[in-house]
TrEMBL record:
Name by which UniProt lists this protein: Uncharacterized protein
Membrane-crossing residue ranges in chain numbering: 12-31, 37-56, 68-93, 113-143, 155-175, 195-217, 229-247, 253-269, 281-301
Keywords: Membrane, Transmembrane, Transmembrane helix
Transmembrane listed as a keyword: yes
Origin organism lineage: Bacteria, Pseudomonadati, Bacteroidota, Flavobacteriia, Flavobacteriales
Pfam families linked: DUF6427
Keyword Transmembrane in annotation: yes
Coiled-coil segments: none
Organism of origin: Bergeyella zoohelcum ATCC 43767
């Protein structure tokens, strides 16, 4: 199976994967009483769709089908129709931020920091638990910019503009009281609400192995690959922190990890020296997801 997925993708691959993902999501949920095409669903599917373009934008996987396939499978397993508007918006804005910050045209990134700042505040308004994304972008600015003060100013200027717009709109509609949810506190212990996630431990172990393997062969990587992988890894750490602190029992938060995990796994499997290791690694991921998905469905029934 890995050999088939290792073939080079083309211009039609992403639209096909998007069509398959959206089609399977609709087929799986169309008979559900909770199914309805509403704003959270539109934002969520929009964010997942943009994730495919993020994979190609980061350019760490030699344009193969492996990351696109993994992204599709992860998304199908973790997607849930009871997703709230906050998480849906976070999926959309995270994808937009990654697309903008990983742009191959450096000048475009520098010009977009005002928009990036606005998106960060927009993201925070709908899901305050995503405050760590602000730290992610600030670290990115310090690590990549030559004119740090100017770009930090642009970033915060965009944040202030969106903040003024939001508070003006809230005041116009009579929302004059402070909501304590804008200062999110960590929820109950992670596994206390999500014991079924233990069944995903093989994927977690494989992910740690993939990251460790990257650093073991760090000196063999090109400077561009090092930078892009570090960018991706920092993004992953921010999403993991958000999940550990605020997921509670909403397992759809795992969708925040789908894009970086797909790229990391695809790259890890590609550089395995023995072909059987690639097949076994892919098989472990697929089998683990199947077991987790089955257990989730059984628990939902009983």
């Amino acid at each position: 199976m890995f050999k088939l997925l290792s073939k080079e993708s083309n211009i039609f691959s992403v639209p096909v994967y998007i069509g398959v993902l959206l089609g399977l999501i609709f087929l799986r949920n169309i008979s559900s009483a909770a199914f309805s095409v509403d704003l959270p669903l539109v934002f969520a599917l929009g964010g997942l769709t943009l994730g495919y373009f993020c994979i190609n934008s980061i350019r760490l996987n030699y344009q193969t089908h492996v990351p696109l396939f993994l992204y599709t499978v992860f998304s199908l397993v973790f997607f849930s129709m009871d997703m709230d508007i906050g998480l849906s918006v976070a999926l959309m804005t995270n994808s937009l931020l990654v697309l903008m910050l990983s742009s191959p045209e450096d000048m475009n990134v520098k010009k977009n920091y005002v928009i990036v700042g606005s998106l960060l505040v927009f993201n925070y308004i709908f899901l305050p638990a995503t405050w760590a994304m602000i730290l992610f972008v600030i670290i990115h600015v310090f690590a990549t910019s030559e004119r740090i003060v100017l770009h930090i100013f642009r970033l915060f200027f965009g944040m202030v503009l969106m903040g003024i717009f939001y508070f003006s709109l809230a005041y116009f509609f009579g929302a004059n009281t402070w909501d304590e949810r804008y200062l999110p506190m960590p929820s109950s212990p992670f596994l206390a609400e999500n014991f079924s996630l233990v069944y995903l431990s093989p994927i977690a172990i494989l992910l740690l192995w993939a990251i460790a393997d990257h650093f073991l062969h760090y000196n063999e990587k090109s400077p561009v690959s090092r930078y892009k992988y570090t960018f991706l890894l920092l993004f992953l750490v921010v999403q993991v922190a958000t999940i550990l602190m605020y997921m509670e029992n909403s397992k759809s938060y795992l969708l925040l990890l789908v894009m970086p995990m797909s790229i990391i796994f695809a790259r890890f499997l590609r550089f395995r020296k023995r072909y059987w290791e690639k097949e076994v690694g892919l098989g472990v991921i697929m089998l683990t997801l199947l077991v987790y998905f089955t257990i989730e469905k059984v628990m939902a029934i009983y």
